[in-house]
Amino acid sequence: MTAASSAAGAAPRPWPGQVRMLPLLAAALALAIFLFDTFSPMKIAVAVLYAIVILMSVGFLDRRGVKLAALGCGGLTVVGFLVGLRHTGFEGHLLRSVVSLSSIAIATVLAQRSQAATTVLRDSERRWRGIFQSVGVAIWEEDFTRVQRLFEDLARQGVPDLRRRLEDDHRLVERCIALMRTVDANDAAVRLVGAADAADAIAGRARIFLPETIRTWRDLLIALAEGRSSFAGETVLQTLGGERRAVLLTATFPADDVRSTVLLSAVDITERQALAEARAELAHVSRVVTLGELTASIAHEVKQPLAAIVTDAQACLRWLDRPVPALDEARACAGRIAGQANRADHVVQRLRDLTRKAEPERVAVDLDAVIGEAVDLMRQEIADHGVALHMRLAPGLPAVSGDRIQLQQVLINLMVNAVQAMATAPRRELTIETRGGEAGEVLILVEDSGVGLAAEELPRLFTPFRTTKPGGMGLGLSICRSIIEAHGGRIRASRNAGAGLTLHVALPAADRWASDRRIG
């Protein structure tokens, strides 16, 4: 605890000179009362003035000492009564002594109660100061008495709307800030502003204010003028070392009409604000990356139907350029071109749906048919790369619930990756297999005999923008995982016993999907 705050935290004490003089004054007064009561011929109850001595003793004695002082005053009263019998009548003197002893007793009770109340007050003050210093939040104790007087003066001058006046007149706000008086600052406040101690923090208060701080003070003053119980707002402070700190400033206003003592607390949110800014920047980067993924995905997915359109268009031209045009064959090519154009349109539409986070179309899909369509689209490329294709489709598998176009995209991506992985392999074999899985699942396995991957690379295989292929974008498998997981399925990779990799896709059967949807 700082020296300034320690002084502020203790209960008010008399000055040292007062502490030394008060017992002497009390003793002198007691002696004077005794002498006057004992030897004065006047018939008055002078001993009642011992009550003053008892009340004075509260300032320098504890409760036991006050009791002893009261007994001493009572003893002096009795001695004065016995000595005074020589000069006055018994009955009158006895009555005055009884009155004096009664006043001493009453004064003693009042003094004891005062001491008890003072002890409770000091304990409460000590606890409050302990909390004030030990809490980890920066707290300033402010005296707004002069600010309240200014508000009252403005009201008497006929200012109708103090809120608008504060909003429009920044000089009034600065004047109010100048009228505030900082009574104390806790250790957390000292650390926040980079001060040496509480006195340094209080003295340097004007240096921590920035234009942003003034605006927050204006809002705080408006809350005070409108009679609110509290205020909270974010602002910026400048430490005594010149460092900017973002803080959440709160004020608690007293419930009484005076509302002079105000507690201000400040929570340092600089790191939290920096984290929020970093998250916003990350969200912006994520949107940019998503846009890049979408653009790359469109090019990646539309490439296959466009290539098929080009091939069929060239074939159609060849049929038409013959001496005797083969119209039936040309018509068939044109039909395939239309079909591939529709497929490209479906791909773009599904990608647009993905960007809107729309649910895939849920229809019963025959995986054998989907695999057959995907293989037809890839057959030429598979042949061009000298890859032997093996199909092992299990009969009687249940349909899956999903989006036909998206599932075709997944299979085409897996086959493209497999073909490219075998570009330098001496043996090039691509195997597509389906089988029944556990718990109502249908499994698709795409196996290649390519170069494979190291074991430590497998967990990162589906990470966006991570690729082992020269010129690759690292998007295909990431897109595949997103589509499969959107269908309630799973995808993983495993190393083959020989060469290459196997991609395992597990999809829930249509009846299980419907059941899970009902349960969910």
From TrEMBL:
| One term of GO molecular function | identical protein binding
Instruction: Give a Pfam family name.
Output: HisKA
Uppermost EC category: transferase
Residues annotated as transmembrane? 21-38, 44-61, 68-87
CDD domains listed in its UniProt record = HisKA
Record domain Histidine kinase: where: 297-511
The record's listing under Gene3D superfamilies reads: 1.10.287.130, Histidine kinase-like ATPase, C-terminal domain, PAS domain
Q: E.C. number, please? A: 2.7.13.3
Its recorded reaction(s) are: ATP + protein L-histidine = ADP + protein N-phospho-L-histidine
Q: Which UniProt keywords apply?
A: ATP-binding, Kinase, Membrane, Nucleotide-binding, Phosphoprotein, Transferase, Transmembrane, Transmembrane helix, Two-component regulatory system
Record-level GO BP terms: osmosensory signaling via phosphorelay pathway
Please name the SMART domains in this protein's record: HATPase_c, HisKA
Q: What is this protein called?
A: histidine kinase
Q: Which organism is it from?
A: Inquilinus limosus
